[in-house]
Amino acid sequence: MSEDAAVSQWKEYPFWAVAKPKSVSNASAESLLSVYLDRGVIPYSEGGGLVHKPAESLEKYQLVEPGDLVLNNQQAWRGSLGVSTYRGIVSPAYRIFELNGEVVDTRFSHYLFRSRPYVEKIMLASLSVGDIQRQVKWPLLRVLLLRVPNISTQSKIAEYLDCETARIDGLIEKKTRFIALLKEKRIAVITHAVTKGIDAAVVMKPSGEDWLSDIPAHWTVVPPTALFTESKERAREGTQMLSATQKYGVIPLAEFERLEQRQVTMALVHLDKRKHVEVGDFVISMRSMDGGLERARAVGNVRSSYSVLKCGPHVEGRFYGYLLKSGLYIQALRLTSSFIRDGQDMNFSHFRKVKLPKLPVAEQAAIADHIDTQTARIDSLITKTDRSIALLREKRAALITAAVTGKIDMRHMA
């Protein structure tokens, strides 16, 4: 029998013949479960807090048993569904179905319903709710057609996919760990260079500052005001609004919206009090306690509540750009200031409390060049590894689609 002939024997069933809606509540003692786009049904505790917090009362939460199909009612069209291997409870906003064991194998069903062709079918069974949500509608879902082989073949396909996806997942995990190591190395390269320099033979001395520890003997430690001055110049007419971001630095608001593909609502009050910023200035924003100070990439204006720092003659901006975003410096800010405990935003008065290293400008430039070179190499490796992970995920999805739609010949399998 040819492969096409084998697939022609697969039977077609409407969704209602394969999955029966169920809703059992008052099981609040059971463990919480969540449904994830990339993982299916997992314990809520393993989600890392990336989903909505559960309601105070769990009485209306629905019981899920191993083998049940669970759909996030508003996200199933994106693939947020799966067959559970756990017993527990989920939000009343989810839909739960008991699968017909005479028609479908539970492991096969998990792959089937999460495959691209069937996620697309579920999208067609969902109607728009607002601008970004779609809600599954039972009258449309119940008549969705599923084409499946006999139970024995389903089991073979599931075993094959278990093996192949485990192999791919193992490769993805290794590459993900490699990226984590590269990111750690990147941090270490920057931290060492901005606090110890790049001359391995240099004589060291105590800095007198806990956060710096030992520094090269020819460096000094000075108050920040010896290197930077605060600018309170008001915004100049006709200049663009800037956004102080931890991810991109201080860039035009329009560029930030383009990069993030979202629109930012700006308060159109006190525009006359906004502050002028030049390229190379540093900006202290309300999030600087989390990610350090940001360097301006464009001319424009920022919020009046932000502090703008002008670089003095002893400052090479790239060097201090790395230093003022280093983990050690951020920790020092947090330890010497009460603004976090008091719920205040960071400002210039907090910045001036942490002393900074001062070194020859030429050496600052050499260190910045070194960091630029080393981080560029690391970033290139991260990009390449990220790309290979994306290809593996694409291969995984394509493999599942091919298997559950009969594009892979399973007749050779025992």
UniProtKB/TrEMBL annotation:
Family annotation (SUPFAM superfamilies): DNA methylase specificity domain
Keywords tagged on the record: DNA-binding, Restriction system
InterPro entries assigned: Restrct_endonuc_typeI_TRD_sf, Type-I_RE_S_subunit
GO biological process, one term: DNA restriction-modification system
GO MF annotation terms: DNA binding
Gene3D superfamilies: Bipartite methylase S protein, DNA methylase specificity domains
Presence of keyword NADP: no
PANTHER family, per database record: TYPE I RESTRICTION ENZYME ECOKI SPECIFICITY SUBUNIT, TYPE-1 RESTRICTION ENZYME ECOKI SPECIFICITY PROTEIN
Protein name: Type I restriction-mod
